[in-house]
């Protein structure tokens, strides 16, 4: 998703507080993530239910891009799309990835009333009705739609095992492994109630092109499954080993934006 080749990361010298020097939009008016303040949220009865049509085998590869672990999808047609919710068009799934911390006290990017979750899943979609390529969509204000799912630790998540059991294959930055026929529907909670607001990518280039759909209900994975994420590395096989943890950007200023909820409390 990088348009340039500037170095960025989550360390002291290249972390989120430094990103603005190469990506000035980091200080823009619709940056993500945010803290969702439940008292400021507006219930919008016009918001439609989110429809998820992830029916066929369109997943391709699992990879470690040095910032997260990602699964990418064939996005040449509308076989794996979301629609409804706050969206005017269907949006095609391009990839999903995760953000997590060193322990259960931190890791998510969005927070709810100031509280973090141990991990957050992002399913990144693009508007192929209006734009020709993912890159073109990423530059447009209504180009992308990202579904955010909080992960809590507790009981083991059966649908997550295929993924967590494959993570050892992409331990190092720049490594890939085939990952066919994985349906990410299994990673969504049964209730699809959501919050929505206009925002951005949470990693450089931080484009302000994302309609965020953050699900109210978290999914649960075991501490053992979570530990497998923390064993991944930011570093290549040749570098000094640095564990891939705390790969999250903290909440950004709301700057007058309104967060709408599809549900009443
Ligand atoms: Zn993300």
Elements, N to C (H/E)? EEEEEEEEEHEHEEEEHE
Helix coverage percent: under 10%
Q: What is the C-level CATH assignment? A: Alpha Beta
What is the chains' assembly state? single chain
General form: globular
Mean pLDDT: 96
Q: What CATH architecture would you give?
A: Roll
The total count of strands amounts to 15
For the biggest sheet, the summary is: 13 strands, mixed
Number of helices: 3
Number of domains: 1
Outline the low-pLDDT stretches: none
Portion in beta strands:
25-35%
CATH topology: Carbonic Anhydrase II
Q: What is the radius of gyration? A: 17 Å
Q: N- to C-terminal separation?
A: 36 Å
Output the CATH homologous superfamily: Alpha carbonic anhydrase
Molecules bound to protein: zinc ion
Structural class: mainly beta
Family: Belongs to the alpha-carbonic anhydrase family.
Cofactor: Zn(2+)
Keywords: Lyase, Metal-binding, Zinc
GO molecular function: carbonate dehydratase activity; zinc ion binding
Account of the 3D structure:
The protein is mainly β. The longest helix is centred in the last third of the chain and has 8 residues, at 223-230. The chain has three helices and 15 strands. The chain has one domain: Carbonic Anhydrase II, CATH 3.10.200. Zinc ion is lined by residues 97, 99, 122, 202. Residues 6-263 form the Alpha-carbonic anhydrase domain. One of its GO terms (biological process) is regulation of intracellular pH.
């Amino acid at each position: 998703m990088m348009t340039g080749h500037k170095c960025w990361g989550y360390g002291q010298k290249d972390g989120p507080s430094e990103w603005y020097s190469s990506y000035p939009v980091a200080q823009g008016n619709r940056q993500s993530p945010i803290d969702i303040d439940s008292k400021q949220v507006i219930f919008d009865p016009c918001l439609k239910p989110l429809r998820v049509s992830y029916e066929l085998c369109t997943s391709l590869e699992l990879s470690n891009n040095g910032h997260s672990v990602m699964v990418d999808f064939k996005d040449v047609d509308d076989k794996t799309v979301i629609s409804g919710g706050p969206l005017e068009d269907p949006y095609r799934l391009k990839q999903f990835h995760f953000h997590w911390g060193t322990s259960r006290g931190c890791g998510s990017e969005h927070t709810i009333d100031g509280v973090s979750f141990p991990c957050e899943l992002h399913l990144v979609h693009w508007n192929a009705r209006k734009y020709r390529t993912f890159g073109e969509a990423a530059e447009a204000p209504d180009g992308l739609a990202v579904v955010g799912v909080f992960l809590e630790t507790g009981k083991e998540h059966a649908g997550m095992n295929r993924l967590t059991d494959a993570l050892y294959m992409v331990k190092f930055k720049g490594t890939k492994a085939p990952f066919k026929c994985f349906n990410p529907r299994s990673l969504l909670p049964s209730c699809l109630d959501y919050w929505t607001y206009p925002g951005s990518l949470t990693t450089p280039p931080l484009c302000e092109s994302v309609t965020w759909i953050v699900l109210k209900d978290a999914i649960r994975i075991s501490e053992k499954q979570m530990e497998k994420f923390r064993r991944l590395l930011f570093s290549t096989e040749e570098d000094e080993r640095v564990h891939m943890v705390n790969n999250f950007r903290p909440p950004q200023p709301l700057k007058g934006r309104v967060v709408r909820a599809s549900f009443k409390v």
